[in-house]
Specification:
Blueprint (H helix, E strand, L loop, with lengths): L1 H10 L1 H12 L6 E6 L11 E7 L3 E10 L5 E6 L13 H15 L3 H4 L2 E6 L3 E7 L1 E2 L2 E2 L4 E7 L4 E8 L13 H11 L4 E7 L10 E7 L2 E7 L5 E6 L4 H6 L6 E3 H7 L12 H4 L7 E10 L2 E10 L4 E2 L17 H9 L2 E7 L5 E6 L11 H15 L3 H4 L4 E6 L6 H5 L2 E10 L2 E13 L5 E5 L19 H11 E10 L8 E10 L8 E3 L5 E2 L6
Antiparallel strand pairs: 1-2, 2-3, 3-4, 4-10, 5-6, 6-9, 7-8, 9-10, 11-12, 12-27, 13-14, 13-26, 15-21, 16-17, 17-18, 17-19, 19-20, 20-24, 21-22, 22-23, 23-24, 25-26, 27-28
Organism: Paenibacillus lacisoli
InterPro entries: YcdB/YcdC_rep_domain
Protein name: DUF4901 domain-containing protein
Length: 529
Amino acid sequence: MEKKGVEAQMLDRQELKARAVRLAGVPEYYQLVIEDYPEAGTPEKAAAVFAWIDPVRGEEAGAAVELGPEGELIRWTRDLEWDREKEPALPDEYLEQCILNFVRTHASAAVDVFTYTTRQDEGDTIHYNRMQEALELPLPRSGFSVTVSRNGQITDYHYRGGVGHPFIPERILDREQARDQAIRCLGGWSLCFAHLTPSLYDVPAEGVYLVYAPSAWLISLDAVTGSQRRSGPVLEDAEAVEDQEEQSRWVPLRELVKRDAIHMEQVERDSPEMLLGIRPGDYELLRSMELEAGIIGRVWRRREGQTGELSADPATAVPSHKSTGISAEAYLRERTAGTIKARFWKASGRLQSFMTFEEQAGELRLSREEAMTKAVAFLLAVLPEAHVLLDLSEIDIGDLHNDESEEDRQDKRYVFHIRFAVQGIPLYMEQITVGVHAATGEVCHYLGPDFDLHELTRISAVPRITAEAAAAAAAEQLDVQLEWELNYPGCGRSPHYQLRYLPVQARSRRDIRFVDAMNGTVYGTLLPK
């Protein structure tokens, strides 16, 4: 009966669409780009999704609505402009009332049912969460969240609903027992460089820091059994690398440059566009915008034929909101088909990353070594100083396609993951990725470092404290925090809640990620709620 009810509801697509248009409140000139429905037999929680773009402000602005099978509002998103000169910021009490009024309109009982409240001030907006609770602790992925701009406009709403009552164990570990066990799990601290930003870590400024990092993170302790949940190794030692030799081969970058006679004066100094194979007259720039602070994103598509006519951009070649859209999957596929997408550093104009979505074919059959030479030459063209600054770079060779069918040989790509170090000290979780198409010999993918390599010349590689002192600093700051965790056991079993102790810093309640090797300061990330 459930399936028939969902199927019957989904057949009434015009009613669903009319409700979505009404809830979105979009102007007539907005363009519908996504109109996606669950197929017959989809589980009860399936939703219908609608999305519009504002053709005046561009494709990154618009609205989206997600409905449940009975037309209930699950997700509502709207990009709205705020004229700060004409619309002053409103008091927090008024903004909270705007939020509660909005929720009461779409889920009348939710305000009273979900009682655990968190509030995050995000500058121009306030993010408000209400969740179901048990033992006075919030239950993840329950309740609702709302984002409101400072002028009182709701920009995002997500209703998750109730989750039932979790099992309450009769006994749990004492907090001091859990803390002592967590301290014993701290160990194996290694020296590394880490690029840290205030948006993710509690550091005073963005930059590359010399820090100690644990060999593996302690994620949590089971509050009943005390069993540990740890991450994999954070920093691989020489033995770990040797254990992977059967799967990967590692080559020092300087040796490779010397072996293949790749000299800096021979590396072609093209413009960033020419480096990507974008030749004037062959491609049209579709979009260019500042994606985030200091990063410019650009998208190109090849012109059709020899007439100079552009192939249609699905992001703009769509009718008004009264017409029919396409599925989310088809929209994303068409929007990226045949394009080249790249990110550039705004200050220097250097390439930060790119990927081509063009179909590629050729007669070449590059070997791993030939593809590696092209990858390194491309890297040196983008980052000439890498040859000098990165002392202990290594290259991991991998394939996207490993079988030997003719189709796979035509589309075979080598992907090289380049890890690097400075003065023998590795950079934490930093690598450069270069993909080379074996049939064309062209670089088809590049992902560069998240910071300016010249910053590595301005930092000391000599720590002022020892690894033992770093471990002691972390232990002194460590506390544990009892929380509900949603556990996904897999194998077809339903997720369930478990009580866990999370290791946190005693004062800031952040987790423990690094210890500054110069002054012993403990750095962590803000724990998500």
